[in-house]
Amino acid sequence: MNPGSVAVVVTEEIGVPSWDLYELSIPCTVFGKPQPDLADPWYDLRLCSTGKGRQDSSPADTGLSLRTRYGLDDLVGADTVIVPSVPDPCVDEGRPLPAALITALRRAHDAGARMVSLCTGAFALAEAGLLDGRRATAHWMHTAQLAERYPKVQVDDSVLYVDDGDVLTSAGLTAGLDLCLHLVRRDLGARVANQLARRMVVPAHRRGGQAQFIDLSVPATDDKNLGPVLDWACAHLDQPLTVEDLAQRAAMSPRTFHRRLQAATGTTPLQWLLSQRLGRAQNLLESTDLSIEKIGELSGLGTANNLRHHFLKQIGVSPSHYRRTFPRAVPDSSLPPLGNRARGGEDRRRIGRGASDAPVAPEADG
């Protein structure tokens, strides 16, 4: 089976920052090196430049210019088009992408190409309108910007990649490798993809999504009445906390507290509490050798079964798998002290106490 041609976009006229070379190198490694004993023919790789290699620079600029044999016209006619990333100014400052690139992406899609983005390359596909009405992802640090700038895109920040048939997107950095191996699996079968992964010394398929890598630390807020309450809640996560408790401490009605917290953090009080409990559990898994049961207690998520349930639902992996992914290095002395675990009955408004979830069977791996 001929897997066809792969055209990779190089945003040359804007410049390629050195830290974006990783995403660029991934498709070059996967699709550019022939593997005749696995599949013959292999992919036909083309690096397609957006410009002439000139860029504005400054003494602090660490970008570089790459010369390629192909240009944007060569995107049209390729079987697969990959946008590895776009420069930071296009993401953080809204600097426009080259109009010629957006036009070429649309033309390639109309001609039947499979469109792929890695990391912030999703911004280019979104700008071209190719993600409208579709589920897509990007690096979790940029998914909020992607969703705000392109409201027609159904952004999912919890997954490593999204396969929507003829349009595929991945999260950042190594998730791009996951997606490229997935493309090989689609094109040439599981055996070839698995053998290629072995040669690259990487898993053929990783468990869980990028939710396990998202920073769940307390978001900053300028609300002077909320800040101390949220800090207090984080120091007492092992206790049964209700929205009414936090609202009373903030000298607000529960309704007002709900509205103010959602405006400040973008989430509801219950979801905020759950996120902080999960963040506490993650820190304890990374920095201590405590049992899963004890971590469930200290994080306020209750029993080990309840901790596993919330981890699988929100993080995508079990606590034991997470602990193996992020092995203990140095104990985290920055964790705020926990108050004494308060006694209390089950309350459906209390997060992680098993009241809002059905019983969950224990996992074999803990």
From TrEMBL:
InterPro entries: Class_I_gatase-like, DJ-1/PfpI, Homeodomain-like_sf, HTH_AraC, HTH_AraC-typ_CS, INH-QAR. Residues 326-366 are annotated as: Disordered. It comes from the Bacteria. PROSITE patterns: HTH_ARAC_FAMILY_1, HTH_ARAC_FAMILY_2. Pfam families: DJ-1_PfpI, HTH_18. Residues 227-325 form the HTH araC/xylS-type domain. Keywords: DNA-binding, Transcription, Transcription regulation. This is Helix-turn-helix domain-containing protein. It comes from Streptomyces chilikensis.
